[in-house]
């Protein structure tokens, strides 16, 4: 492969960067800029922040649950294509997926054991 073959990719990246920068520049010129304390206040679910949310602190359980959700979503993303091509990849692909699933189960058991799935109020 030569460098000339990557020229279209370079043009595409340059185009995306230019469109992004142009959009940000034009929107900064057109948008109203009127910051005031009530506007800059944190806002969630139509209620004023109170309690721990007012201080900017959130319980770790929210983040751990989000990470677990991402982990199992990624697992699902790998599981569907693997199931489609299972006959083509044979025993090696099957063993690799079993190892992958075992690693995820170990991580899940660790999170469960540490109490990450228990919700304390």
Overview features:
121 residues; mainly alpha; 0% strand
Description:
This protein is 64% helix and 0% strand. With 121 residues, it is mainly α. Helix 2 packs antiparallel against helix 3. The protein is flat, with a radius of gyration of 24 Å. The relative contact order is 0.06.
| Shape call | flat
Q: Determine Rg (CA atoms, Å).
A: 24 Å
Could you name the ranges where pLDDT drops below 50 across 5 or more consecutive residues?
none
Structural class: mainly alpha
Helical stretch count? 3
Distance between the termini: 60 Å
Total strand segments: 0
The SSE order reads: HHH
Helical residues, percent:
55-70%
Taking the sheet with the most strands, its summary is:
none
Quaternary organisation: single chain
Mean of all residue-level pLDDT scores:
82
Q: β content, as a range?
A: under 5%
Describe the structure in brief.
Helix content is about 65%, strand content about 0%. It has about 120 residues and is mainly α.
Give the helix/strand layout:
Elements: H1 7-30, H2 60-84, H3 86-113
